[in-house]
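Annotated sample (chain length 357).
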Amino acid sequence: MSKVKVAVGMSGGVDSSVAALLLQQQGYEVVGVTLRVLPDVAQESAFDPENDPSVVRARAIAEKLGIEHHVANCSDAFTGEVLKRCHADFSQARTPNPCCYCNRFIKFGWMMDYAKSLGAEFLATGHYVRIEEVDGVRRLLRGRDPGKDQSYFLFWVPDERRNHVLTPLGTYVKSEVREIAEQNGFVNAKTGDSQDICFDIYGSQYTDFLKDRFGEMTRPGRFVDEKGKVWNTHDGFHKYTVGQRKGLGVAIGVPAFVKHVDPETGDILVTGDKSSVCFDRVEMVNCEWHGGAREVGRTFRAEGMVRYRQRAVGCEVTIVDTNKAVAVFDEPLFAVTPGQCAVFYDGDMVLGGGQIV
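Output written by the structure step:
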């Protein structure tokens, strides 16, 4: 009887490497896939798969495990599905969440399709989340390690995609994963995490790249308070987000917070009243709900969070239509930020969520 084939997204980091090992030990036929997601910023940064550190580490692990290893270039898809969406968010004074875009459209979109082209029945990653059957349906749950749980970033992955996903690290904590890597002589056992590395690579060139590729997305403007007094100017509103306190260059006698960014005028509303940047009502669009369609008009209790690693707060969620929802929280939340994502839970189980407007 032939083994079930699983493609593992191997970033070169310790998490995905141990995920590949665990699946191999469980009896799967494992192949490794390393994605090239970033378009070249300059000619001197042209991708060289033979010398790229992530590829070299992933290939070394694949050779140690005796599995196939593939390098797949999805930079065009990443540019269109992630970078272009981030540009659009910035231009509308929203703060983009590139990890949510990447998980939905690239890792569990493009890469899953690539995995299928290799004959794989499942795609596996090193995410610290659990996927378990609940009432006959595969559901997404928080990972065992509360400090590494990444379920917030995977809420947008549709059910039909998640049915073909394996996440073997969901029942482990990070220290256990590193111990497994060391016991097996992995070269990356002590390397740092690779999360959020996509945009760190660009550094200061990130927003310049977006502007050069897709056009101007921001404008200079003024810092003004609720009475209309001008306190300073800025050279681009994309550098500021709701709730931001540091780096404003505004001295109003008390700590100043960004309350609102106006993409039409470029003006940034600042306030010294932190409570005025707290909101208990959150509206969302581009919603994704799991475990069966939620009825339009239905209201249900849940625990929600509007940013990664935030404490989950009780709320009532109402499904307005197939795309929109509203949540009313039991207490005001600081800096509810347009462009970010609100994600809702029933205990450890992800119910769904949407993009804040």
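Annotation: The mean pLDDT is 92.
Annotation: The radius of gyration is 22 Å.
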